Every structure is written in C-alpha cells, then in structure tokens.
C-alpha cells in the first residue's frame, strides 16, 4: 500500500473511531430525548382522546345531585375506584408495607372499555413536565411514565385520599422526576384523569428512608397527592425524596 493510501486509510479509521466514540457519548442524551418525546406524545394522545370521547357513545351516568346535571363516563370504573379509595382508608393501608404491594395491578382499564392502561396525565408547569400516568408501580409503568403506588389512593380526588405518584430520578437519559427537587411551596401540580382536571399546590418536601412509609399515608380530612422519587440523584436509590401537594380550591 502506497504512503498516500496508507495515510488516507489511517485518517478514515481515526475518523470512524472518533465518530463511534462521539456516538457512545451522545447516545444516552439521544435516547433520553426520544423517551421524553414519547412520553410527551402519550400524554398529548390521552388528552386528545378525552376530547374525542365527548363525541363518542361511551357508557355514562347522570349525576342528579349537581347543578346543572352532569354526566360521568365509565361509571362502573368510577364506582370501583371510589370504593377502593374508601376501603384502603378504612383499613389503614395495612398492606402497603408488604413486599411488592405498591406494584400490584388493581384495575385493568381495558376491562372497562378503555383502549389502553393510561389513566391520566401529570403536568408540572414549573418543570415544563408532562407525563402519562399509570396505575401500579411496575417496571413497565415506571419506564413509560409516572405510576401511582398501589395501596395508595387512585388520583380522582376526594376527602381522605393521598395518591402517591412515583417517577424515576432520571433513567436511560430521560428526565422523568429528576428535577422535582426544584419544586417549592406554592408550585402547581396538575392531574388530569378520565373525569376531570385537578389542581394541587406544593405544601412541603421531605427526604425519607425507603421503609418510612408512614410519611406517605393518607392524612385524614385531606385531598392530596405525594410525588416520590429516589434520592440523591444517581445514588442507586438509597433514600426517597417526596413532595407533598394539597388540592387547591376550585375556581
């Protein structure tokens, strides 16, 4: 091989090695951006579906006690979830400490006529964050968005409820709940479920050990959500960071 050809070949190999190294460095960011975009698309798709449902013939029930009268879709699912929320409060969330209890799949939404298992959307304006919301903190649900811990309240509102919503502290290059430590008292967290959009305000934060579940239990007389993620960041989840949010007054 001539000197010129050898130089060209060497230069090409160096360029290929450089590009391969650059790809390895950038891959987590690229993958994370793809995951963030996918979660945003899933959230947008859910919200768009709610709009479409207004024009579809889905199961509804008239609520005669409201003025004016309102209709609520998926009445059987609503009744089952309100009964569940009442039951875990009455039982004192006694099984939450059992291994894997928070991962249990208590409701299959497709059994109630839903097209998939997306229950809602969580939006945090301060963080420019919008993620789909699932029931049960399984590995799959946590990878796809935010997940409500089983044996905590379903986020449909109401007195004596506290929906604990878990998210990764960043994972696979995507953000998830990485920046919830930036939230301060008064910041807004919005939950849109199958029936309504609910507004909550941050009232406090706390760092706890994984076994200190008394910090995430229902607080009598309150309508709350609690955000939960690993802490410190990139520590392997030795502790938990929680954000307490209380339902804001309707406007």
Question: Can you walk through the features of this model?
Answer:
The protein has one domain: Sortase, Chain: A (Beta Barrel). The chain is of the alpha+beta class. The protein is globular, with a radius of gyration of 22 Å. The chain is 29% helix and 28% strand. The strands form three sheets. It has an eight-stranded mixed beta barrel with strand order 3-4-5-6-11-12-10-9.
Kindly estimate the percentage of residues that lie in beta strands according to DSSP. Answer: 25-35%
Q: How many helix segments?
A: 3
Overall structural domain count: 1
* Extended strand count: 12
* Residues in helix, %: 25-40%
Label the structural class: alpha+beta
- What is the C-alpha radius of gyration, as a whole number of Å? 22 Å
CATH superfamily: Sortase
Average pLDDT confidence is 83
What's the CATH topology name?
Answer: Sortase, Chain: A
The major beta sheet can be summarized as:
8 strands, mixed, barrel
Distance between the termini: 80 Å
Give the class-level CATH name. Mainly Beta
What is the second-level CATH architecture? Answer: Beta Barrel
Query: What string, H for helix and E for strand, traces the elements in order?
Result: HEEHEEHEEEEEEEE
Query: Which parts are unreliable, with pLDDT below 50 for 5 consecutive residues or more?
Result: 22-28, 61-69
Q: What oligomeric state do these chains adopt?
A: single chain
Shape: globular
Strand order of the largest sheet: 3-4-5-6-11-12-10-9
